[in-house]
Design brief:
The complex is a heterotrimer of chains A (about 550), B (about 200) and C (about 375). By secondary structure, chain A is an all-alpha fold. Chain A has one domain: Cytochrome c oxidase-like, subunit I domain (Cytochrome C Oxidase, Chain A, Up-down Bundle). Helix content of chain A is about 65%, strand content about 0%. Chain B has 6 helices and no strands. Chain B is globular. Chain C has about 375 residues and is of the alpha+beta class. Chain C is built from 9 helices and 12 strands. In chain C, a hairpin with a 2-residue loop joins strand 1 and strand 2.
Amino acid sequence: MSSNAVAIPDARSESRPWVLALHDWVTTVDHKRLGILYVLYALLFLVIAGCEAMIIRIQLMFPHNAFVSPQVFNRMFTMHGTTMIFFVAVPVLLGFSNYLVPLMVGARDMAFPRLNAFSFWLTALGGLLLYFSLLGGNGLYGAGSAPDIGWWAYAPLALKAFSPGHSSDYWTISLIVSGFGTVGTAVNVIATILCMRCPGMHLGRMPLLVWLNLVMSGMLLIVMTPLTAAQLMLLVDRYLGGHFFDTQAGGSATLWMHFFWIFGHPEVYVLILPCFAFISEIVPVFSRKPMFGYPVMVAASVAIGFVSMSVWAHHMFTIGMNSYANSFFAITTMAVGVPTGIKMFNWIGTMWGGRIELKTPMLFAIGFLFQFLIAGLTGIMLAAAPFDWQLGLSYFVVAHFHYVIVGGILFALFGAFYYWYPKVTGRMMNETLGRWHFWLFVIGFHLCFDLMHIPGLLGMPRRIYTYEPGRGWDTLNLLVSLGAFVQAVAVLLFVANLVLSYFRGEKAGNDPWDAWTLEWSVSSPPPAYNFARIPTVASRRPLWDLKHAEDPDSRYE
Amino acid sequence: MTSTQRSASAVPFPALETPGAWRLPYRGTVGMACLIIAESAIFTIFVVAYLYYVGKSLSGPMPRDVLEVPIFFTFVLLSSSLTIHLAQKALERGARGAFLGPWLATIGLGALFLYGTGREWQRLIDEHGLTLSTNLFGTTYYSLVGLHAFHVAVGLALMSLVALFALAGRVGRQHSARVGTLALYWHFVDAVWVVVFTVVYVIGR
Amino acid sequence: MGVMGWRQGRHARSGPLTVIALVAIGAFPAVAFIAWLFTAIGAAVPVAGGGHVPNIFAPASGHAKAIFDLSLFVLAVTGAIFAVVFGLIVCAILKFRRTEANAFREPPQVYGSTQIELAWTIVPVLIVLVLFLASARVIHGIQDAPEPPGAVDVTVVGHQFWWEFRYPGLGIVTANELHIPVSDPLRPRPTFLKLLSADTDHSFWIPELGGKTDLIPNRVNRMWLDPQRTGVFLGQCAQYCGTQHGKMLLRVVVDSPEGFEAWARGQQQPAMRDEQAAAGRRVFETTACINCHAVRGTAANGRFGPDLTHLMSRSTIASGAAWNTDESLRRWIEDPEAIKPGSLMPAMKLADADLNALVAYMRTLR
């Protein structure tokens, strides 16, 4: 192998007019830049949706509080849910996928770079549309503003009769638009993984992150589109006089529920799979061992992809399905816990016998393991349908899914940020600020979401703008709101760390964590073309093979 | 631990055991297959809605009273699959002339199918008073058939674009893979029609 | 760069303090939950005006008790799983963390183990089977229970934002407060509810009496309650139905058999006709009130709003949003937005004299 050292100019030393730099970013088709754009976009909406959450929690601090009117409160929880799922979680995860997948498979870019850019801008437009509703939602009747139908938009509440004005239309159309963007990226990821792997990288040698993104993207193809279809039907009802969900004309409200949850449940698996991916990259590196049971991890991921398609009606245990349907969905929901549990055990198995380094990414990974365990167990409780007849539609469910999304997804994301920030920017994040962020967030998270389970057990339903005093919910709600404040402070610390480290962080070099996948073989940040020569790999950990030529992985698996 | 402070290209990766043997699928085909899977999911939802609401309309014209089975136009659409296949094969051989004829025929047959759909809708609206807002049957019928017709129209637009380039002499053998991707889409549209036909005109009546 | 934290980026301390803190934070939710559980189970804290703190772990009916028993089983199983897995995580961190001793050796690179994988696949599958069988039994037991003779039939119609209760067998129509007889386990007299909706989705939930079931337009749902002690039980609508979903409260009064008979007889009577309130009745009958409300025995026959025939037999108005007092009644008629903003009751814009008369009339509807 000849060494043709290529002089890579430091991008920051160029002094170009900022207009040209902006133009470069807006017209980019480079997967790395699009990944960064996705992540920045998501962080902006994280702050906005976080403010919406704070408004909700302030209103609920005291019974009969009048911080906001019920109309505003209903818009807050609708916007909070919709924004967090579609304009925070999906973009940030697709952003990481965009950045990492081509690097990890040894490609120079995604399969369809222009489609990549188009997909990003569609998603961005969707977010702007949703928030434009605050201005444009009033419509002819003077009713409207931001949507207030809940992020599930159950029919017939979402139909014109009960939602005059245009607020519901902004919800519908913004999600259709961003849905196309999401499907576009999914197509791109699949095509990249199947068609652009570097020589030697059989499917069985891909990093687990790549596998999980493959499964996630495959799921997205058939999961995002039912929502699009249902929303098109909703538009037909609202504007063309259709009767898809018009119960007065014989239509069915439960049909919307089925269509929505056929999207909605697999969607949360779509969100968690990339987070499993992050954990599967971080835990081995910081335990200094390969992933325990790689083939089983792949099989479990695929199994989760399939089984999760069959569980959707566990969101509908209370709608009066017959006992056979309820039993079916109970067992499928419990069944999907089996491959998930297997993954959990495999991560622990990776840590076992290793040499665990408790740096910030690993702290967040451990937090993930612990919190995802609890979230999974409360999920099992909800899967037992009769138990769900009590727990469902209450704050227990709200606590459960925030445990998964904040305690699981967000923790894994934080870990991923601290892990890959050096690669993207060339600088390390501040470890002290990272620890402050971690501990503050853990304390706030547990204060908020552990206690949130209890009002649910005491009969507090979801989506209520206020509650009666003396039901035992008062103190708990106050403490939950305080926990939310603590988390908000921790997130601000994180944002500060992101910004400060960009300017003053220690230079990272190619491989600050001594890791083993291909992205660590290029400079930090990588050059625009990723690899001067497309690499060839002979095992799952190509850099381990290079660093330990006396004992390469290719000898064992 | 040694940190790998190498420049981007100097990492000595091992050579492939049998160079030249590393062949992966064409990304156009994979991309189109993914799109087809996604679109199938959309159509499935509309089909499920259609089947769920069979017989549930509270009033108005019922399918068996107003629907006429469009055998001729179905034949037209399905034979356009044959013509596009012939066109694609011709392009792979490099026979530009033999490509253009069947390609234009495909567009013509597709347009004829759309005309047939339009004529059927006009008959339903004018003679039977069946619109999208009449009853559940109207809503689900126009939505499902309309969604399919929309996909036909998009296919026609894309094929016309290719036809324009072909008439200008710019389409050759090197484009056969890309044209094949479009042909795959067109076959999908025809397959969807088979499903829609069965659901609407066979099961739903 | 001398700012603290960056120079030592690569060599973080992973000392015992970190580990202890991790474990403590980890144990907090478990300990808190268990401590709370012990205090909450069976707790029945009275609230002002009669009623308890609603609590799914204080079942007061056979239906709720079946769910409670299952929930204890599920909690026990999940608790055991938590203990085992949490223990494994803690052990792994404690035993295998980086120390000065092993800092420069890569540990043995273990790739997997088929036996271990099998073990931790088979055991969860068995657990799932057991949990499923336990759940299925309760699902069928509750949903497929036949209706015994003598059961009370109630039709519940959900509205934005109030509850309509009809007793077809008894000829009673009332609103917001449901009276049902207590059901002796040896000679059960459950109440079977037929759940309908006039507009959007709602959900009927009284935690101590049973699980919730939704009210969905164009769909008939059924559920049953068999309360095994008398008292007042609180709940509220559990499915988001619009602006005032939060104040669509529920009150279920479980009477003794004699109490229920007495109540039913009272409800079956037409409205009391008190000549002293004639002025108010005239206001009621000549304003728009009768478009929405019904008072049996008069010209008022509106079905859009609650039936007011025996309004004074209820403890609350506006579906629980306010107590049934002179003052709140007056305020409700005058300015509903002050009590329940976004409810569908319009402000009646009456003159003071008319308003007083009307309230006086309402007070006679016992």
